[in-house]
Amino acid sequence: MEKEVLKINVAIMGAGLAGLAAAITLEENGINPSIYEKRSQVGDRFFNCELLLSVLSKPIDDAIKYFAEEHKIFLQPQSNIRKLIIHSENNSAEITGHLGFTNLRGRAENSFEKQLEKQVNSKIHFNSQKSYEELLHAYSHVILATGDATYATKITEYDVDLTVTLKGAIIDGNFDIDTVEAWLNHKFAPLGYSYLIPITQQKANIVIAYPDYPENQKYDINKLWENFLDEIAVIIGQNFKMKRDFEVTRYIIGKSKYPRIGNTFLVGNNFGSIMPFLGFGQVASLLTGIYAAHDICGLGDYTELTSKLVSSYHESLTLRRTLEKLDNAKLDILVKGLKGKVGQKVFNGEFNYLKLISKLLP
After folding, report:
1. Does the residue 3 lie in any domain?
2. Contacts of 101 (CB under 8 A, 6+ apart)
3. 67: helix, coil or strand?
4. 298-313 pLDDT tens trace
5. pLDDT tens for residues 48-77?
6. Could you tell me if residue 100 is left (phi over 0), alpha (psi between -120 and 50 degrees) or otherwise beta?
7. What pTM did the predictor assign?
């Protein structure tokens, strides 16, 4: 009697960046996964624009080129970032160079999610009601790629370092497509940050984001938002019209203690791909999906492959914790110190940004 050979069959729970990157990589290695997505389409979330800053993805200098050449995952950014302007309450620093890219997320036609979907051949089961437990019993491997860390907190030890409130909108105006502006100012985002990212020359995405610490509960988010809108009107020197807006509360930023549980792989936000400093995590999210697929295909060990991502997460958290200790006066000193050669060296990869604050502050 012939011995039955166990067939690898993989379920991916979630069709976001990590889940779709895993699917593309599995298919490249001869495995067609089953993908389950609870929403009605890929990218069925609020529309926004994000940053791929090269300084935050080291040693990867050009993430778009890296994913294409190393992993056959092809992404088109929205724009190059040629100028970054950082504002504090009373200072501004302007950094130029090839600083990275902007990219779209969510329901936009050219969002990263939509681009990845076009590269996947496996069937995506939309409006899925399948639970993790059901998939666990039906498949040899499960890749847990849900869009937030809620599932991970239920099934494993997950360190929640903070939760964040975000409020954002799309505005109409006139913008330089390659210029991004950011604010470190507690009047808009206490212990957090704000930014403006152009989508086109006529549209931009604006956001304030701040942690849900007890000391921040006294703030009225609508008042903070009004302060930010007033600041934008002054800085960009023009009237603008606000269109679609969104608000997210208690968004989890944290990291799973164990990235793999048996033959379940925690990827994306379940792994802990959001970098705490600025809250972006596209590069780490894509890599977790790729690395999970590599493990399943016998091309590496997931825990070892993701070890550098864990280190990056902790470095980013350290930077955030340090900045949270600074009041607006010290943030003014910090931003003033970024003017000139120092800022150029930091954001063009010649200076370790984790040493930045100790160098610039007395």
Report:
1. no
2. 51, 52, 63, 64, 77, 78, 79, 80, 81
3. helix
4. 999 999 999 999 998 9
5. 899 999 888 888 889 999 999 999 999 999
6. left
7. 0.93
